[in-house]
Amino acid sequence: VKVFLTGGSGFIAAHVLNILIEHGFEVVTTVRSKEKGDKILEAYPNLSKDKLSYVIVEDIAKEGAFDEALKSGPAFDYVIHTASPFHYNFTDPVKEILDPAINGTTGILKAIKSYVPSVKRVVITSSFAAITHAPNHLKLYDESVWNPVTYEEATKDNKFTTYRASKTFAERAAWEFVEKEKPNFDLATINPPFVFGPVIGYLNSLDNLNTSNQLITDFALGKKKDDTKPTESVQWVDVRDVALAHVKAIEVAEAGGKRFFTTAGFLTNKDLVDTIRETQPKYASNLPTYENVGEVSYPFDYDNSRVRNVLGVQFKSIKESVGDTLASLVKVGFSH
Ligand code: NDP
C-alpha cells in the first residue's frame, strides 16, 4: 500500500514516517533539499527504493508544485499532507505563511484529482489553530468548532493570528474542495494543539528546533525563570500520538470525512516545571520556584473522545512526553 507524505523532514512528519514504515506502508516523501532527503534514507538503511524514496518539492506555495512528483510517482493509495510553515520569523504574512499554507493545500488536492485517480483518502495536518476562538474562548471545543478569523485580520501585524489563520483557511479550502469537486478521495484532518515530544535525531540540530518544543527548552534554559504564572496553561499533545492519529486516519475506514481534535488536555507551567525537575534534575536551577499555586482553573473544556473512539489513539502523559523530549534534545547536544 503506497503513501505520498509531504514535508517528511518536519518534526511531526518524521514520526509519521516512522509509524508508516512500522505498519508496512511504502512511502514516497517530499523534502526541500537533497541533503534532507538523503538523511532520511540513511536513517532506514535496510529499506529498498520501493519501500522508501523521496522527491524534492522546494516550495509548496508555487502553482503546480506537486504536479511533477505526483505524475511521475506510483499509483498512490493515500496522501498525508503535513508540510506548512510553522514559525514566527517572517516579515510578509501573505508570501511566507498564508500562501504556502493555502496554496500548498489546494495545489496538492488539485494535483491528486488530476493525476492520481488511485488515491482513496487524503489526511491533512491542520491544527487546533483552526478551531480556537482565542483570546475569546468558547466554553467547549470539539471538532464542530471553527476559528472565526477573517483574511483581513490575518494580514495585520499579529503573527500568532497570521499563523492560526493560515491553518484555518487551508483546512477550510480542503473541505470546500472535496465538497465542490467530488474527487476520487475523501478527507480527514488532524487538529493538534501544541505538539511536544522527542525530536528525531537524524534530522535535528539545536539551531533548527521546531517551534512547539521551544516552550520546554525556554524553561530548561532559564529564559522563563522570572515572568511566568504557574497556573497559565496550554493545550498539548505528544508528537507520537499525533503521528499515530495520522496513520490511523488512513487505516480506519470511518475516519473519512472527519476532523480529529488530537489533544491530551491542559499542561500548566507548573506541570512543565515539575516534570523537568523530576525527569532532568540538572536543569533545576534554571526553573522558576512557584509557591502557593492554589486551585487551577482552566479557560475552557475540550472533548477529545472522537480521537479515542474512532482512531483508538490513547494519549501519553505529561511526564513521559516532556521527559522524552528533553532526553532527545540532550542527545542532539542541548545543554544548560
Ligand atoms: P516543522 O517546521 O518541523 O515542519 C514543517 C514542514 O513543512 C517542514 O518539513 C518544512 O520543510 C515544510 N515546509 C514549510 N514551508 C514550506 C514550503 N513553503 N515549501 C515546502 N515545504 C515547506 O513543524 P511541525 O512538524 O511542527 O509542523 C508540521 C505541521 O503540523 C504543520 O502543518 C503545522 O502547521 C502543523 N501543526 C504543528 C503543531 C505543533 O505544535 N508543532 C501544532 C498544530 C499543527 P523544511 O524543514 O525544509 O523547512
TrEMBL record:
Record-annotated NAD-dependent epimerase/dehydratase domain positions: 3-257
Similarity comment: family membership: Belongs to the NAD(P)-dependent epimerase/dehydratase family. Dihydroflavonol-4-reductase subfamily.
Stated name of the protein: NAD-dependent epimerase/dehydratase domain-containing protein
Residues of the full protein shown: 2 to 337 of 777
